[in-house]
Amino acid sequence: MVSNIMMSVDMDEWYQCRWATGSQSAYWQDTASFFKDYYKSNKPAGEIIPLTEVILELFDRFDIPATFFFTGEVAGYYPHLVKKVAACGHEIGCHNYVHKDYNEGNPEEFRANLHKSKALLEDLTSSEVIGYRAPNSTVSPYMIESLLAEGFLYDSSVTPTRSFRGKFGNFKDAPKHPYILDIHDFAREGNSGLWEFPWPVFPIFRLPSGSGIMSRIAGYTYTVISMEYTLREGDTVYYFHPYEIGPKPSLPFKKVNTKVFLRNLGEPYRKMLIKLCTRYRGRFISGKMLYEKLTRQR
Ligand SMILES: [Zn+2]
N or C: which end of the chain has fewer CB within 10 A? Predict the structure, then answer.
């Protein structure tokens, strides 16, 4: 059977990245202080809306059913965008409520925000939300039980790679194909009932891949080599963000890692994305479709 690629879009805006507002070491303390400082407002400027419309057109052109992972916060700013994406036939997934690192230190906050976000997204779309993606791909073992208790059927947050600059867990021995998680371990296959759809890796040193970020930093060939390598083992994942096809934001600071992170934003990445959509045309499915395919096979 031919392996598929779960196409996904993480609906966070650029200011929710770890270096902007999404971590302890971020430039702004949180999105509220960012809005005040950057937009002189108490809400965001809607940059994500026209970019999402471009993505919807692209997916329509290439007949790609995808999963859009919304944070509750972003869904609250743009409820019509959630409805529009769902009305176009795409799956709505949950990206927690606030885009930040949830780890061993905040299980109660994780669970409360998870619940709040899922309820809001289900209310907006009048359908069940079954897929989860962790902000900043930060996961901790306790989350598996919480995700099951909240009614999730799959997670797609694991890169089977080693920890890198505070990102990714130590998952270098995790399977590269979709698997059912062990109840206490994101890196191990088990019988918890919660599926994991891991991201692809590059064959040498299992470097992370399958994201807009890695495509922009390491290039198209790197992405294709990783996709081919991982597809040989089974279904895999690709994800990107709307801001990656947009203009470079003007920032009040210069940091080397931010410069790397924003490399090839806009037109160069949009072209790369079209090349990927063309190359793998017919093989993209949503997370929900992948879940249905895998459960049918068992
Ligand atoms: Zn995100």
Answer: C
pLDDT reported for residue 258: 84
Residue 13 Cα, ligand 1 centroid: separation in angstroms?
8
Whole-number Å distance, alpha carbon 240 to ligand 1 midpoint, is: 9
Q: How far apart are CA 117 and CA 104, in angstroms?
A: 20
Q: Output the CA 81–ligand 1 centroid distance in Å.
A: 17
Mean pLDDT for all residues in the chain: 94
| Ligand 1 mean position, distance from CA 96 (Å) | 9
Q: What is the pLDDT of residue 252?
A: 83
Its CATH architecture, for the domain 5-127+199-297, is Alpha-Beta Barrel (3.20)
Checking if the pLDDT of 62 tops 70, the result is yes
Residue ranges per structural domain of the chain: 5-127+199-297
Q: What is the mean pLDDT of residues 94-113?
A: 93
Q: What is the pLDDT of residue 170?
A: 78
pTM (2 decimals)? 0.96
Query: How far apart are the CA of 297 and the centre of ligand 1, in A?
Result: 30
Q: How confident is the model at residue 99 (pLDDT cuts 50, 70, 90)?
A: very high
Give the distance (Å) from ligand 1 centre to CA of residue 230.
22
